[in-house]
Fold each of these.
Amino acid sequence: MRKINIILTASVLAFALTACGGQKEEQKEKAQVQETATAQQENKQAQMEEMVFEKNGITVKNPYTVASKAGQMSVVYLVIMNSNDQPDTLLSALADTSIVGETQLHIYVQKDGKTGMKRVENIPIPAGETVELKPGGYHIMLMGLKKDINVGDTVNVVLHFKNAGDLEIQAVAREKK
Ligand SMILES: [Cu+2]
């Protein structure tokens, strides 16, 4: 019994080796193509995570918005770096008016133990410093959405700086948490 088994295995193996000579090359190529595709996808993801916009010494990094429904609100968070030796000011923001009814600058505030928010005139960006618009702090409020914002959508927002001028950025929509 054992002997037959061994012979069988050996002949199957020999057959497999001859038959697979060409296929192996093909599989190798397929694997390489797949690897390239995966690398490109990862690259794209990394780029989306590392979105950088620059103008006149002002750098805006990783802007993102949050998926939301038409008629509701959403928000844009981002990081602003001022590499100039002069302070700058974010005077206003204007999101794509085909998607957003009104764009306002806001800050979250604590009132009677509750988190609320209020509109601010502007957001100061001190010389050589980084200001983060983030949950719990400053943010760009997108009010009266005219359309749904779905995960992966981008919303164009023009940031109007006192010194650096207008900087257009793209905020990618993340899932609402
Ligand atoms: Cu707000």
Amino acid sequence: MKSSLVQKGEARRQTLKELGPKSKALSRRKEAVVAEAVSPLAPFFIAESRGSTIQDVDGNEYLDFTGGWGCLNVGHNHPKVVQAIQQQAERFIHTDCSVVMYEPYIELAERLTQYAPGNQPKKAAFFNSGAEAVENSVKIARYHTKRRAIIVFEGAFHGRTLLAMTMTHKASPYKAHFGPFAPDVYRAPYPNPYRNPMSFVAWEKQLKSLVAPEEIAAVVIEPIQGEGGFVVPSEGFLACLRKFCDDYGIVLVADEVQSGIGRTGKFFASERFEMEPDLICIGKSLASGLPLSGVLGVAKVIDTVPDSGIGGTYVGNPVACAAGVAVLDVIEEEDLLERAEHLGSLLEERFQEMQEQYDLVGDVRGVGAMQAIELVKDRQTKEPASEETAQIIQGTLKQGVIFAKAGLYGNVIRMLIPLVMSDEELNDGLDVLEGVLAKVSG
Ligand SMILES: Cc1ncc(COP(=O)(O)O)c(C=O)c1O
């Protein structure tokens, strides 16, 4: 017998043939006044959301496998997060932490520094967006080392502000016609086991042909690439990178804006590789969608920057910090790290079955719930199946499930599911994915 959730999923698929009248009307209003560049993946407009589902203004329900681009590890509108936001908003909304400080900032810093890997004392500073966290990590590293060069990687995504955009790899849509870019940023290969396997020795040789290690302030790496297509680096690479940074006095920065806050089954992906970064950038799921990011790191590195050298009007907003504390409570009380492992193993199993059945699926990879499939036209040449991936994303959307793509060639389907998603919801969404994959595979 089919469960009510699966029946609900089937009903949803039958009702979603067309965009509802209220969404259509809002679309027309949007087109008239909102910048073209603000172009959402989904054509419908949200009325409300809970857990892993979104209801649109016409009463249709969608399963959300994107979690608002990875911001909703504790799910949409978790009641504890909502309550924390309401309670904090009633007390005070803003002081600017450089005018009057408040407890939620301190509590969040205390809790997060406990999670940071390694035994050295850690400190935290909060910002608004992931890009800001990345830019501040670079400022801290430059101040600490009194050096200028920054190493980033092929496939990297670090945000859209000038320095973060420079550090990001993909030209269109992120960089084309937005130059000139910030100086002293050097791009090294990312050891991608599927497309570009390389030893650390080969990597180091290539790096040294780009820039002298003695001039490098920071190496900024995503321990698992996010927008780059959930690429997991070759085994042992991150440990060698740690040693390389130690040897040359370079600050190692882990950009965990996408991989952090429990997605990989550990609080930080760095822990999966036993890597102890000097600085960790966090954002996205930190405050369940409220604008909050941060840099966590070794106290003696962060503390070299003097008073007011880093900051901003809204940074570490009290409502966002209170939400962040509630997010940590939910992760701990609901064992979401374990849940990420469990969901990850279900995803991996289903993806491996898909790989066996459909030639289109060239690679299955990931850690914990951070899983993805890479689609190729030909398994030998690995030619990216970018159009097919776009068709699949559109096809699943029409059946009420929102999936996100990724990768330099837009040929990766990545899972950014809320970690509170039930097994049934997960399987329901994956059934839809597989159905559309089968059709597109022909
Ligand atoms: C790894 C990583 N760093 C930085 C960013 C930038 O974050 P934001 O969009 O909040 O500026 C992102 C966003 O996707 C990201 O995935």
